[in-house]
Design brief:
The structure is a homodimer.
Chain A (H helix, E strand, L loop, with lengths): L4 E5 L4 H11 L3 E5 L5 H4 L8 E4 L1 H9 L3 H5 L2 E4 L1 E5 L5 E5 L8 E5 H14 L3 E4 L3 E6 L4 E5 L6 E5 L3 E3 L6 H9 L4 E16 L14 E6 L2 E7 L5 E8 L12 H11 L10 H7 L2 E10 L2 E2 L3 E3 L2 H4 L8 H19 L3 H31 L5 H16 L7 H7 L5 H19 L10 H10 L6
Parallel strand pairs in A: 1-2, 1-12, 2-8, 5-14, 12-19
Antiparallel strand pairs in A: 3-7, 4-7, 5-6, 9-10, 10-11, 13-16, 13-17, 14-15, 15-16, 18-19
Chain lengths: ~450, ~450
């Protein structure tokens, strides 16, 4: 395969990983990124976004030999640390099984590590400051422009893999060109604002580092994830409009009053709250779905370009990394028939992408509201008990999505819904796990329709 | 209001009607159409598409004084004439109430009538061959181009109403410009092909004219609507791909064999079947949803531009005409505050547009499959009986959508779903209406949650 050139668009997280997979197969890879090199310019806008790596992501990182290096820059989080309005905290573990934790990592550090790794491969060429402005599949022609817009370049290419993110240039072309292209972009009525809890004077974490902190407030919430240098990246998810909304927070005084009222324990930890609030933009939360994902076996969308999702299941990057692993294995099976590779990828992957998109939207309600609901917590406890008593027969939905890469997202969703029916039946008239009718539980679990694992 | 100029985009069916409503209020209206004048060029491509006018459409036509004139070019259809594979036919009436029928009309004739009417108003100026290429709401600037693309014109305008169809130029601008614009375009896996049953040698109809003919074949169907000059416009709705699909009908022989096999009674009536099949394009079936529908009270989408739907409930034009009536009445209430007019329109109308979009997709299954299902037919009969015994308490869903403009689409959908639950209960274990437990029916109907009418 070594003479075949593949153009990968986007040097965010997914693009470099895909480039590495392809390079390991012997392809010549051109990795094109519209922004300048973040290793020279610093992370854009000084924002220290972080994210959670879960099992699906680790599986891909391991396949390309990066698991150990990435582990060194990530922090295990064993559960949700829920902060109530009085500042009391309680830990809700993600799992009862040892080792089932998720890992916080800095998006910027991870990106740099992937870029550095990509550049170690002699058959990967990374080019920055090249924006794709069009792709013409009839002429196999990719048009690129530099940031100034002054220089335009046309490249002949037979195979393009577009990992160019939620606002993908290639997908935009498909919307304009491809007949009967199914497309949806759907925004939540919420925006997000990134804030920070810095390290203390001794450079130490000001809160428990091994947890994902949540301040659930029913209609909205704030969260915080630890960074290796002792800080937390904080994110407020809040309605754009209405009574409690960004539209009401127009002054420093209004911001101070709001935070003091609803997140009183966090305020003393956030010395730059008001500055950050007005310096940082309000981000949008979008779900993008589309089909088909490819044009005639010539260009394929992967990652956010194919399926942008909201962040509430921490599966944006993880699902993108899983895309790379799956595509890699389909190339092994069917290369050089790219039509079959891309068709099969779309057919197998699309239902799973749709499933995680929907579950991610649902999980917002779980995080901002349900985690304080006694009935929800009871069901969680009973779920753990079912998992313990009938291992393999019951796996909490969260665990299937986050810790079980062997279970496709669509199966996790379907099985999760059947399991939830069982939990509802078992918990309908009780208030503690001790009251569960375990004989009924067994009948329901073992008698349930066979579900895919 | 007389000095205020409003630009209406699109001189299809909805644009001219909206222009007439506005002219009757005293506005100066510029009605801009990208195509040349169809009265001079003939209907595009020689296609004789027709459509069904139902009560929502008539209500608007009556308000602008066009009911009588349009009646003269339309043909009442009192039910579905179902053709089985042996050529046997049976009529399924749309309603049991006198006068509740739908009306077939030629799209071209209706369009010409609306254009002629619009031009009677001295304060409407109709300009053809003007394609909107952009609308800049910040500068209140509409850019227009003629068909050759050689002449570009910029117009200052404060108020644009875009009735420019399913592929609206203004909506395209909104997709590119408006932050957090929610948008979806969703295609059925089916295409449609228009064909024709001409009049016989004496110029007479070759089938019953006062019916909508259906050849339901489970996964697909063919329909026919009468035209005033004695012909029928025939439409085949058929999958694009797969075993039974357009992809398989590549030769005249294949087409002849297919039609002889599944529509044997229609073939002798269609002398130009094979020519038409290959001369006419295969059309797509798309549902478009979006929000918001307006930019800052400056431009508003109406009709297909705001909510393109599939044709299976015959509500595309009818819902567009209803848009015009509602917008007209909101202008009466709130003009000159266009922000309030457009906001209120979007808020009140969007849930109804979504409801008819979903019901139209559902109705495809009813037309191609359910109409041959004994259980479906039993429920229809029982529904008519419930309507007779408890008038006002039970109204068949079809009737609510098609004959009751006083019931918004969303209410029809919600109420239809509750009624369907009742019908399912009443018809679960019976095979004829005589077996219905009418005491149970009364309890269910009168005990049902209060539903909006």
């Amino acid at each position: 395969m070594s003479s075949e050139i593949i153009h990968v668009l986007g040097a965010g997280l997914v693009g470099p990983l895909m480039a590495i997979y392809l390079a390991r197969k012997g392809f010549q890879v051109n990795l094109l990124e519209r922004r300048p090199d973040m290793r020279q310019t610093g992370v854009s806008g000084g924002r220290s976004i972080n994210l959670a790596i879960t099992a699906r992501g680790w599986k891909s990182l391991e396949e390309v030999g990066l698991k150990e290096a990435v582990s060194a820059i990530s922090i295990p989080m064993k559960g949700r640390m829920v902060h109530d309005i009085e500042g009391n905290t309680s830990l809700q573990p993600y799992s009862q099984n040892p080792g089932e934790v998720i890992y916080a990592a800095s998006r910027g550090l991870l990106n740099i590590m992937l870029l550095n790794e990509a550049e170690k491969y002699p058959n990967i060429r990374v080019v920055f400051d090249r924006r794709c402005t069009s792709f013409d599949p009839d002429k196999n022609r990719l048009t690129l422009q530099d940031e100034t817009g002054e220089h335009t370049e046309e490249i002949e290419t037979k195979t393009v893999i577009a990992a160019d993110g939620a606002w993908s240039a290639v997908r935009k072309e498909m919307l304009a060109r491809v007949e009967n292209f199914n497309y949806s972009q759907s925004f939540l009525d919420y925006g997000y604002k990134e804030l920070v809890i810095p390290p203390d004077a001794q450079g130490q974490f000001q809160m428990e580092p091994h947890a994902l902190h949540i301040w659930p407030r029913k209609r909205y919430m704030m969260i915080a994830l630890p960074n290796t240098e002792g800080s937390f990246t904080v994110t407020l998810f809040y309605p754009y409009e209405g009574k409690d909304s960004f539209a009401q927070l127009r002054t420093r005084e209004a911001v101070a009053e709001f935070f003091n009222q609803v997140f009183p324990d966090a305020v003393p930890l956030m010395p730059t709250l008001q500055e950050d609030f007005f310096a940082n933009p309000t981000g949008a939360l979008v779900t993008v779905k589309c089909s088909p994902w490819h044009i005639d076996g010539k260009s394929l969308l992967i990652g956010d370009a194919a399926h942008a999702i909201v962040p509430f299941f921490a599966q944006g990057m993880n699902s993108g990394f899983e895309d790379c692993a799956m595509l890699n294995s389909l190339i092994t099976d069917s290369h050089p028939d790219w039509g079959t590779v891309f068709d099969t990828f779309t057919r197998l992957r699309k239902p799973n992408a749709d499933a995680i998109a929907d579950m991610a939207v649902e999980n917002f309600i779980e995080m901002r509201d349900s985690v304080t609901d006694p009935h929800f917590l009871l069901k969680k406890q009973v779920g753990f008990e079912l998992e313990k008593r009938w291992p393999g027969k019951f796996i909490p939905r969260y665990s299937m999505v986050v810790f079980r890469p062997d279970i496709p997202y669509a199966d996790a969703k379907q099985r999760g819904s059947l399991q939830d029916d069982i939990l509802e039946q078992l918990c309908a008239d009780i208030t503690s796990p001790e009251e569960v009718d375990w004989a009924l539980a067994e009948r329901l679990l073992l008698g349930a329709e066979p579900v895919p694992v």
